[in-house]
Amino acid sequence: MKVLVLGGYGLIGEALIGRLLRDGHHVAGLGRDVLDAERRRPAVRWIAADMSRLLAAQDWLPVVAGMDVVVNAAGALQDGARDHLDAVHRGSVVALVAACEQAGVRRFVQISAIGADLASANPFFSTKAAGDKAVASSSLEWTILRPGLVIAPAAYGGTALLRALAAFPCFVPAVLSRQPIQTVSVTDVAEAVSRAVAGSLPPRLGVDLVESEARSLADVLSAFRAWLGLPQARVVPIPAILGRLAGAGADVLGKLGWRSPLRSSALAALADGVTGNAQSWNDVCDHKLQSLEATLADMPAHVQERWFARLWLAKPVIFACLSLFWLASGIIGLIRQDEAADILVSRGVPANLAHIPVLVGSAADILVGAAVLVRSLARPALLAMIAITLFYLAASTLLAPDLWLAPLGPLVKTIPALCLVLVALAVLDER
């Protein structure tokens, strides 16, 4: 069949596409930025589109034309610079369902979430439930799947945070460490979608996808630490107030375009626990869902997982250090521009021109130091840092080569800062 997967390069969507291709279907994937996906999955027909802008049936009709099945694996955690929950979870789904009915699409598979509820105070869950309602009210042959905490070989969002906390040195920090969690393997989610697409599940079905037994978040983190091959460490509960402060900080970063999983909405969801009805799946299917232990055993960790887990928590520290370093450099240059200009004059620069490079350099430092904090500007800001540093080293070598041997090493010390920029570029990608 011809199957359209929304959010096809996401944590769940990519696994679904792989399974549907193995099942022999013709698969199309939709997402905002599909360039990387096109390189990784050339067998898929990729469609570049922002769901939050497709809010009328006529917007969707060209996309769903000729499709037999639509699978919606798209979603966002919280409103931010790039994400609009109501538009993605409700508005676009309402329009999409109407388009599917008009275009004669046979089946619709909705990936929802445990806890989706119209009455929820959490916008993530209430908007998810509104989208589910639109699907369930349609004339389509629909299936709504509500996975618990999805565990996958890919790592970003909440799964990345789990790995990073599990790899914390000496101890494992955890907010709400006693809250119950039920996980599900992404391969089990893909199996459920495969069956729904094939029509082998009961029609008009809403079902939870969770392992049979709940466990505490502390136990989940301990399992991940063992999976990483790290020595056993004590899980240390972190006061809820610190979690709320971290969530508030992550919310601010969200407005700058960074998609941190440690958002206030995620903490609110964790406070309620991530649990569902495991029996609901067993009642309709003979495929038993894996436990967390079996899921981790099926995707053994190696050195790249340990590198990732350790670097993930270091990433915000790296960017904060770079921002502070460049902002401080620019601000100090402005405050002490006369002294900086005197240095240039002593090296042969005309006095009437010496202030110009100081002001330009200070403004450039402040600009890149601020820009690196904005996700959409981070890459050009990092590249600009490299260019500015290389220009500074080249100019200093021409004007004052003796500074390479100066006791405090003003030129030598720029080399480690340049290396830190290269590390930031290496870890910039979120998915």
From TrEMBL:
Residue span(s) of domain NAD(P)-binding: 7-153
Q: Which keywords does UniProt give here?
A: Membrane, Transmembrane, Transmembrane helix, Ubiquinone
Gene Ontology MF: a single term: protein-containing complex binding
Q: Which parts of the chain span the membrane according to its record? A: 316-335, 355-374, 381-399, 411-428
Question: What Pfam families is this protein classified in?
Answer: DoxX_3 (PF13781), NAD_binding_10 (PF13460)
What is the protein's given name?
NADH-ubiquinone oxidoreductase
Q: Which organism is it from?
A: Mesorhizobium amorphae CCNWGS0123
